Amino acid sequence: MIAGEASGDLLGAGLIGALRERFPDARFIGVGGENMAAAGQHSLFPMEKLSVMGITEVIAHLPELFRLRRRLVDDLLARRPDVVITIDSPDFTLGVAKRVHAAGLKTVHYVSPSVWAWRQGRIKGIRRDIDLMLTLFPFEARFYQEHGVPVAFVGHPLADMIELTVDAAAARAELGLAPEGPLLAVLPGSRGGEVAQLMPEFLDAMQRLHRHRPALRFVIPAANAARGEQIRAALAAAPALPVTVTDGRSRTVMAAADVVLMASGTATLEGLLLKKPMVVGYRLGAVTFAIVSRLVKSEHVALPNLLCRKRLVPELVQDAFTGAALAEAVQVWFDSPERVAALEANFTRVHEQLRGGANDKAADAIAALLAPGTGTQDHA
Q: HAMAP family this protein is in (predicted)?
């Protein structure tokens, strides 16, 4: 099993547990983080070596990434596992799948790349290199079915982990926050590059909102110690802001908040499952954006809008990503309780659709793939 980011590490850990129930003697090797290690996987090198964002940003790391991929492929071909399960991080993992599949190994990819949104030509390679695609969302499964790729819609493990109703008061108590008063959660991303790009405009928006609503308080979860230092350094420019920076616990932070201001990414799904009104913002490097904007075919950027098939939450990207615009969009949520209620109803419908034992469904689909003529099934 090969994961390249924190979200993939969580998915991989859950899948390992479900597979072990079906194959008690299974052994797991590959690349993963702390959660997959705790579930019993041996990682061939630290997952953090694969966590690089953007196009121009990746270029500097290409020699190392290519070296790691060669090393990983060589190791897998020497061990000949029954199945190679790649998880998200498609620019790296699909390259691994291509090479091992060509050598006769079975391949599963968990979490569809956004092939339905951009670079649709990749579907040919996926059809050739992937024996089974596991998708988190139903619209993805429909796309693969239309293109002749074996696929199973499994739902999202987070939809099982997060309750349909959220106790905001309990979340505030857990974080040591006052139970009363408006609260905005601010999530500027988990990578250093993201925080550097997004935090200045987020901070500008926070200052504008505080001037308009002096009672408004802010809470920011830092993904790790390095991000915490980076965020606190940025906040030093606005010492009067009532901000609490927490050590991780982003889900609890969002649960405690009335509104969430956040970077585009997988955390927006958590925001949806927590039924939180949100404003999604993002900015890429100029060269990266120029390339990506010519390739994207999707009408929406934010996962909540994609899943609801309509623009329910504001998406402020690139030139539209300004402190003034972010503050205005956040303010609308605080001033529009009827819109918040409608949003919660839409998000609840999606949550119910995504529930239903994703780990078990994924493990069952993999077990079915392995069933015909696999011989030994003692490791994955």
A: LpxB (MF_00392)
Q: How far is CA 90 from the centre of its chain?
A: 13
Give the homologous superfamily in CATH for domain 168-354.
Glycogen Phosphorylase B; (3.40.50.2000)
CATH 3.40.50.2000 in the chain, residues?
Answer: 2-155+356-370, 168-354
Residues 6+ apart with CB under 8 A from 335: none
pLDDT tens per residue, range 186-217: 999 988 888 998 999 999 999 999 999 999 99
CB 213 within 8 A of CB 241: no
Q: Pick from 30, 69, 251, 229: which is nearest to 162 by CA?
A: 251
pTM score: 0.75
β-strands 84-87, 151-153 pairing: unpaired
261 contacts 184 by C-beta, under 8 angstroms: yes
Q: Are 272 and 303 in contact (CB under 8 A)?
A: yes
Could you give the CA distance from residue 278 to residue 23 in angstroms, rounded to a whole number?
41
